[in-house]
Amino acid sequence: MVQLCFRLRPMLAVVLVVSALATGALFSIRAQSATDPGVDFQKDVQPVFQASCYPCHSAKVASGDLRLDNKNLALQGGVSGRPILPGKSGESLLLRRLTGEDKGARMPLGGALPADKIALIRAWIDQGAQWPEEAPAAKTTSKHWAYVKPVAPPVPAVTDAKWVRTPIDNFVLARLEREKLAPSPEASRETLIRRLSLDLTGLPPSIAEVDAFVADQSPDAYTKLVERLLASPHYGERWARPWLDMARYADTNGYEADRQRTIWKYRDWVIGAFNRDIPFDEFTIEQIAGDMLPDPSNDQLIATGFHRNTMFNEEGGVDKEEAHWTNLVDRVNTTTTVWLGSTIGCAQCHNHKFDPFTQREYYQLLAFFDNGAFTVKTYGDTSNKFIEPQLEMPTPEQEARRKKLNAGIDELEAKTKTQTPELDAEQAQWERTVRQASSGWQTLVPAKITSSGGSTLTLQQDHSILASGSNPAEDTYTIEAKLSEGRITAVRLETLPHETLPRGGPGRDAYGNFFLSEVALEMEGNELCIKKAVPDDGRMNDKKFGQLWAVDASRDEKRLPRQLVLLLDTPVEGGGTLRVHLRHRSEFGGQGVGHFRLSVTSSQEPDQIVKVSARLRPVLELDSGARTEKQKNDLAEYFRANAPSLKATRDRLKKLRDERDDLGIVSTLILRERNSFDRPSTLMRSRGEFLSKGDRVWAGVPAVLHPMPQNAMPNRLGLAKWLVSPENPLTARVTMNRIWEQYFGRGLVETSEDFGAQGERPTHPELLD
């Protein structure tokens, strides 16, 4: 059998395959010959039964006592007799029912089969109705050719032995002689160097290189050319490309945001692995479990980036656990496709329909990957995601500078986190100032309220305004109010919760949020210029959606009032009528403000009222003795982040952090195993649905393939070694088939991603083995 210690630089394959190229013996004899197996039950017939016959003739439903999901029961027949007479399609009841020639109802009842499907079943019956006992429907162990350990076949004898240069040529010529065909003449030297250069480096030869090869009449000219191209750094680049495709390599995360990721070190590792000609078993083990090797090197950690190439879903509403689970699913599917040439991914939702893989076995494979390390990073109050490890690789100079910067950062961070008596006094004064700022505002009493979009705006007893009724995507609220005499420096918009609004408000969208596009002020027909808009919470100036102020109230445990202070560029004198326009425009439907109140102030510092977040304002209003320890700590932390006395410290801290970020230290994404003494496990999912959690299963491999050794650890490292074990019937075949595919355009198995029952059989099985 092909051992899995063959080198990444497939020297044997290169020389032998190119030898076939040199003799012009590239073969693709695909027509059926006398030895062709003909119609295959599992590949050709069973899918037709599955789709059109099983609904009425299987274990669940056996109309007429006939089952077609089991060989013995199908040949035995039902109340109408035996449906299949091997070798006699014309007399077989099954075919007569399919064609409508029998007096009974034409099958299937939902509509006649296409003519090509009927012809397929006719040919199968005429060829003897070969139905292997190991077909998945028979519930027995599969003996499909790909699941049987390969044995090195004898090199076939040929008539024209002088033509043969390598053992591959024996297989090629034997097939040609069987088909009574002669090899093509040897290609010209100009053609050979072009073919070889493109195959090994992906680049055409230069004119000088062609001339040199044509002029070289030494017996080993071709071998020297092969060695020169294998030594080229472009060799690794050319052969890394198809591997990186299978590894789904990308420099961005995919999905909605598609942000950049830094993982080019993995790409370079793959290129280097080919150029260094490392053994394929090492190549495999380091990518799947390099972090679990004894004292792993940086290169072995970088290699685990193979499974960090999954797409990252960073959309706002994504569930962190489901996003991580989706990554695990991708890792199972990719591993089994790349190394086993298998469609085991079908078993995520149910037992495989055609190959002997169960859903339980799928989740046993997933369990190998469900023991990876990650941290939970929180954004805002509630949004978070799983962050898997990355490896940093600073130069000695960068590491020395980083240590010095980190020491300074630690010192400054400690200062910003330490509550001193001086800060206590400063905070107490700040609290009094913010509380007193509330008394400097005068609530406006609206004299006139209108809605351009048809919303119903109702004045409440506390002079607030409540929106109801129509909820258009575009709407402008206009509020007119008479101002008292005196100087006006700012206008305040308060948005308030209300039980009649979705989820308690303060907005009108389905989650109680709102998006305010614009605010305009005018007085006695003159527009008032707004110098600055300052909120206590919310998102300001969202250019993406064209919004001035947006509040996501869905993150609040309890709906909170919010405030927006509009500072006037030039103070105005009161006594006139103030008109306020609140404009809403949204591409997502009605998302206007639902409950609000307006007020004005003459304060010289009108934004003092919003110097505390909406979440902490209720805490600020409490007496210090009535606050819990957590409330005290939260309020103190908020104050220190804004304390004037710490501004120089915060500025210095930001400068040092920016300097550290600008060091340019190279990093890459890697895998790490969690510290655990338990066998890796995971929960099954009914129908493959993340939320439908089922039984817990422990890491294991499919029963149809070779078992893991008794002394093997049931973890990712054990899985990697199991994949490249000499007992594995698939990995060597799948890998060599892909190498062949790169040289000739298609593999000996044309479905290189599927060696199962639905895939193509090898055109030359002995050569593949």
Compile the SSE list and pairings.
Blueprint: H1 11-22, H2 41-53, H3 71-76, H4 93-99, H5 115-126, H6 167-178, H7 189-201, H8 207-215, H9 221-230, H10 233-246, H11 264-276, H12 280-289, H13 298-303, H14 320-340, H15 359-369, E1 375-379, E2 383-387, E3 390-393, H16 396-416, H17 421-437, E4 441-443, E5 446-451, E6 455-459, E7 465-469, E8 474-482, E9 487-495, E10 514-516, E11 518-523, E12 526-528, E13 530-535, E14 539-542, E15 547-551, E16 562-573, E17 577-585, E18 595-601, H18 617-621, H19 629-640, H20 647-661, E19 666-669, E20 681-685, E21 693-698, H21 716-723, H22 731-744, H23 765-768
Antiparallel strand pairs: 1-2, 3-19, 4-18, 5-8, 6-7, 7-18, 8-17, 9-16, 9-18, 10-15, 11-12, 11-17, 13-16, 14-15, 20-21
Helix pairs in contact: 1-6, 1-7, 2-5, 7-8, 7-9, 10-11, 12-21, 14-15, 16-20
Give a verbal description of the structure.
The protein has 769 residues and is of the alpha+beta class. Helix content is 34%, strand content 16%. It has 23 helices and 21 strands. Strands 4, 6, 7, 9, 13, 16 and 18 form a seven-stranded antiparallel β-sheet that branches. Helix 12 (280-289) packs antiparallel against helix 21. The termini are close together.
Compose a concise summary of this entry:
The protein contains 23 helices and 21 strands. By secondary structure, the chain is α+β, with helices and mostly antiparallel strands. 32% of the residues are buried.
Q: What would the keywords be for this entry?
A:
769 residues, five-stranded antiparallel sheet, 16% strand
